[in-house]
Amino acid sequence: MRKKVKILIFLSLSLCVLIGTTTIVGSQSIRPAYALTLKQGSTGATVKKMQQKLKNWGYYKGSVDGIFGKQTKEAVKYFQRKNGLTVDGIVGKKTLAALGMSSTSSSSGVTSNYSDADINLLARLIYGEARGEPYVGQVAVGAVVLNRIKSSSFPNTMSGVIYQKYAFTAVDDGQINLTPNETARKAAKDAMNGWDPSYGAIYYYNPATATSSWIFSRKTTVTIGRHVFAV
Model confidence over 108-166: pLDDT tens digits? Predict the structure, then answer.
C-alpha cells in the first residue's frame, strides 16, 4: 500500500513539474521580442552596420569594427543632435528609425513601406533635380519630398507630391523621365530610411536661379551645394 502511495505521489509531482515546465516554455514562446538597443559596450554586426551608416553620412570618422566605443557614442550623439533626437548616445527605437535600422530590418536595407515604384519615382526626381550636387544634397532633396508627404499642407502620397503642379522644375521640363543612376537610387533609399540632411525642410531652391521673392522669406535650415533648404 505504501509503495502505491509513493508511486502516486511521484507521478503527481512529475505531472506538476511537467505542467510548470510547459507553462514556462509557453510563456517564453509568446513573450514579445525585446526592442533592439545599442549603447557603449555593444558589439556585433548591427553595430558595424550603424557605424558604416554614420561614416557614410559624415558623423563618424573611426574604424567600422563593430565595437560601440567612446568614438561611436560621440558620433551617435552628433547624429541625434542634428536630427532632433534625444542626445544620450543610446541607439533606441527612434534613433534606429532615423538611421533606417530596426530589429526587423530587411536585408535590402530599406525598412520603410515604400514600393519599388516609389523608390524609382523619387530617384528620378532626385536625378532630375540634383544630379551633380553633393551626395548629401541629393539625399536632402529626397527628404524634402518625404517631409511634404508628412505635412498637411501637401498631398500625402509620393506621386501626389512630386507631380503637384509647379512643384518641381524636373517635372515641368521633362527631366523626371530620365533614367536615374545608382547614386540617385541610393539617395532615395537613404531618404526613405530616415536620413534627413535638410533638417525638416519642405522647400529648397537655387538662389542663383530662383525668381520668386516669396521663397526668400522662408526660414533656411541648411545650405548644401547650390541648394538652400527651408521651412
Answer: 444 446 788 999 999 999 999 999 999 999 999 999 999 999 999 999 999 999 999 99
Domain boundaries, the chain: 1-31, 45-99, 116-230
DSSP H stretches of helix in the chain:
2-30, 45-56, 70-82, 93-99, 116-130, 135-150, 158-162, 169-172, 182-192
DSSP-H helix ranges across 31-134 = 45-56, 70-82, 93-99, 116-130
Type of residue at 68: F
Task: For residue range 15-58, list pLDDT tens digits in order.
Answer: 443 434 333 333 333 333 345 788 888 877 788 889 988 988 89
Rounded CA separation 27/12 (Å): 22
CATH code 1.10.101.10 for 45-99: yes
Considering the segment(s) 116-230 as one domain, its CATH architecture is: Orthogonal Bundle (1.10)
Residue 79 per-residue DSSP state? H
Judge if pTM exceeds 0.85: no
